[in-house]
Prior knowledge:
The chain is of the alpha+beta class and 168 residues long.
Amino acid sequence: MEIHRFEKLWLAAGILLIVGFIATVTYGAVGEGVAMVNDDGGTIDPTKVSEDANFSDPGVEQVGPHEYEAHIVAQQFLFKPGTSTPIRVPANSTVTFYVTSSDVVHGFNIVGTNVNTMVIPGQVAKMKVRFEEPREYGIVCNEYCGAGHHTMAGTIEVVPEDDYEGGA
Length: 168
Ligand code: CUA
């Protein structure tokens, strides 16, 4: 069968595109540094967040050498901690974030990183993040959560290891 040269070119381009799409999707799912937020964090009664052992006094605590856990409550229209006091962690640390909401659906996006999750009442979102260098990160809520949504933001301060005196 005779296939025209342009026909062959078009066929090759089509196959290349399909391979490219599959590669993109594969990278987006299992690529290095890419992790999905799943239901690992467990569930919580959203009406009793303030009575929960981990979330009644949320914040950062050290759980091992260079290992920290940060419990954060998202509510209309702030992160606790994060908004009125920054979340402070030392550089050269791995921080596991546990974020939950006591009212409506919020977002938790650490600006400039791939840390980004919905914060759903009743669910605890769990994410592990590595902080190498001292710097400041912004946190934004990127799910519309009410009249003050656009003001809902916070800060993470990654401080030099030697200056660290506990989290906020
Ligand atoms: Cu919280 Cu938008």
